[in-house]
Structure formats: structure tokens, C-alpha cells
Amino acid sequence: MIKKVLYIINLVFVLLLLGVYVGVRVSPEFIAELSLFSYIYPFLLIVNLLFCLFWLFVKWKYLILPLVVILIGVDFIPRFIGINSSNENISENSLKVMTYNVKGFSQGAEEDRTIATRNKDSILSLIENYDPDIVCLQEYGSVKKSEKSFHYIMTKKLEYKYFYAPYNYTNYVRGSVIYSKYEISRSGALFPLDKEFYQKTYADIHFLDKKFRVYNVHLDSYMLSDEEKFEVDNIKTGQITSKQTSKNVLKKIVETTKEQSKEVRELSSVIENTDIACILVGDFNATAYSYTYQMLTSKLKDGFVEKGQGFSGTYNYFAPKFRIDYILVSDEIEVEAYQQDYFEYSDHNPVVVSFKLD
After folding, report:
1. What class is the 95-357 domain?
2. What mean pLDDT is reported for the chain?
3. Which of 45, 70, 71, 354 has the fewest Cβ atoms within 10 Å of its own Cβ atom?
4. So what's the pLDDT on residue 242?
5. Residue 26 in contact with residue 248, Cβ under 8 Å?
6. C-alpha distances in Å from residue 43, one per residue of 77, 152, 174, 281, 287
7. What backbone phi and psi angles, to 5 degrees, belong to 318?
8. Cα–Cα distance between 44 and 13 in angstroms, integer?
9. What is the CA radius of gyration of the chain?
10. What is the greatest pairwise CA distance in the chain?
11. What is the DSSP letter of 183?
């Protein structure tokens, strides 16, 4: 009797895991609620693996169903945990790209404005240490002419002589900005700049005798309040969110995924018609088990899947930490190394990937 009850429980988790697989292939415009499954994939995978282990020693025939369902989505596992290793020797002519949502340098600065200065200085030090050839920033803004400003240091001291900013004023730059040490021959915004931070910008960059395109995007955000983020994050300590907070968060996720499905459809069309090698980076505000991710990686390779190691989480609020910042590349580009570390200077972590252009 106990075995049958446990098997019924296992069936529930099997069905939920199947819900993840269906959710990545059905646009949220049709069934937005399916997008909610993408946030519990790691939990569902682990539970079903534990059931497999349990049935192996208790009643092996019950093992078949959860094992088959796990194998159906075996390509999801490398999105969750990196099982490759970076090249020990990076090519002499490799190219290094960084993406970082800097949150306007405001992380933790509500209580102490000096922290904003610390965030700026610390992120500049990170960029100097990583020494990427291209830096793509989201939720970014800086004055231009002050010698202590972020933009001035990037362009004058760190030698990112070329840049594109969707909002480029006489003494201020803002938006999803692309900085490059190599010549930019063409640049712009893909769509009208109708939202303050959610731009999709591009730059054609010349590296040695090759030209490639970099897309820097910030997809629609869930716009959770600090109180909502705090309550959701406290789930890891065993606390349960209030009914009203749960309803608000779920509603925002559902509405945002609908908007993202429209964005990603437009963006996929642009990428499909790009006739040179391209690199797509940015803050997607979507997990690696989402419809958004599935659509974009149907045309591009994920730097983490290619060369990532262990678990990766680029958003620092929730546990488990989700990977929502990506660097994707077209087939002509070989990924050589993937780097991602935790820093407290933003609610996101930077991602750095090294490439070799074929």
C-alpha cells in the first residue's frame, strides 16, 4: 500500500516535469501558466532522480516511468549543471565578451549613497581584471565628461574607444550600451525605444580580418517590488509568502512571459536574417527552461552549455539562483571558455565568455 501511494506521488512529479517540457514549446501567448513550470525544473529533476534511486532498490519496475521522462528531457540537464570544461589553452586570437546588468549601480545604495560609488569603482575594477574585448551593459547610465565617470574611464583609460548607446546625449549615455576595443562600423537599436531600460541594441565589430555582430538585449522584466522579492527569497528559510504576494508575483510572471514571447519572436526573426556571425548577450529575465530560452537557442549556442562547469546562477535574489543572463553565439563561433562569479555590486552577476571565430 505504501509503495502504491509513493508511486502515485511520483506520478504527480512526473507529470509536472512533463509540464516543463511542454512549456518551453508552447508560446505563453496561448497558455501563459505553463511558463511557471520553468522555475521548478531543478526541484522536479532532483525529486524524480531520487525516486529512480528509491525504486531501483525497492521495486525496479516503478523506475521505468520517471527514468523515461528524465531521458525525454535529457538536453535540459546541461542547462542546469555545466558538464564540460573550458579549454586549458585559449587561442592567441580569441575574443572575450562580457555581459553585466549593473542595476544603475544602485545595489544596496538605498541606505548609503556612497555604495553607488563603490559599485561603480568595483565594476570598473572587475572589467579591468577580466579585460574583455567587448563589454555589454544593461540598466546602465553615466555622465561622459567627468574624469571620474564610468564612461570616461571606460573610453579613455581602459581603451574602449568605440561604443554605442541608444541614449547618447551631450554629457550622458544610458541604456543597453556596447563598449568595444575594436572598430564598430555599424550600430543601432533594433526596435523603437519605447521603454526606458528594455532596449535591444547591436553593433557590427571588426576583429582582425573578420566582422561579426553583437546584440545586447534586456527583455521585459517582472517588475517585482523589493517587498515581493524579499518574501519570495525567504522561502529558502522555510517562510511562506502571503497569499496576496503569491498572487501578485504569479500574475506578474504570467503577464511578463506573454510580453517576452512577442519580443523573442521579433528578435528571433532578426537573428535568423543576420547574414554574418553573431553574438547575443544580455539579461533575458527568463530561465534556461523557458520558452524564451528555447526559442533563442534554436538558432544559437549557449556559452554555458558549451563550456560551463558546475551550477550557475546569475541572479542573486532567489534560491535556487536562476541563470537569466546569457551569452549565445552562432555556429561559426567556437566557445573556448565560460566564466561567471558572484559579486555584490548588482543583483546580477557578470558573465564572460571567450570565443574563437572560424
Report:
1. alpha beta
2. 87
3. 71
4. 66
5. no
6. 12, 45, 38, 27, 14
7. -100, 160
8. 6
9. 21
10. 75
11. -
The owner of cell 532532483 is: 46
Residues 6 or more apart in contact with residue 286 via CB below 8 angstroms: 38, 219, 257, 260, 292, 293, 324
User: In the numeric block, which cell numbers belong to residue 207?
Assistant: 576583429
Whole-structure pTM value? 0.91
Give residue for cell 525504486: 55
Tally of residues, the chain: 358
**In the block, which residue shows the cell 557590427?**
204
d(CA 56, CA 281): 42
Torsion of the alpha carbons at 232, 249, 216 and 137, rounded to the nearest 10? -40
DSSP structure class, residue 161 = -
Which whole-number Å values give the CA distances from 23 to 35, 41, 102, 260, 349, in the listed order?
A: 6, 11, 30, 14, 26
CB-CB contact of 173 with 141 (8 Å):
yes
CA–CA distance, 296 with 281 (Å, rounded to integer)? 11
Q: Does residue 354 sit in helix, strand or coil? A: strand
Residue-wise DSSP of 29-75: TT-GGGGGGGGSHHHHHHHHHHHHHHHHHH-GGGGHHHHHHHHHTGG
User: Which residues have C-beta within 8 Å of that of residue 282, sequence separation ≥ 6?
Assistant: 99, 101, 136, 138, 176, 215, 216, 217, 218, 219, 325, 326
Q: Amino acid identity of 306?
A: E
From the list 136, 118, 178, 99, the residue with the least C-alpha distance to 340 is 99
Cβ contact 193:199 at 8 Å: yes
pLDDT tens profile 19-76: 999 999 988 888 878 888 888 899 999 999 999 999 988 888 889 999 999 999 999 9
Can you read off the three cell numbers belonging to residue 71? 531521458
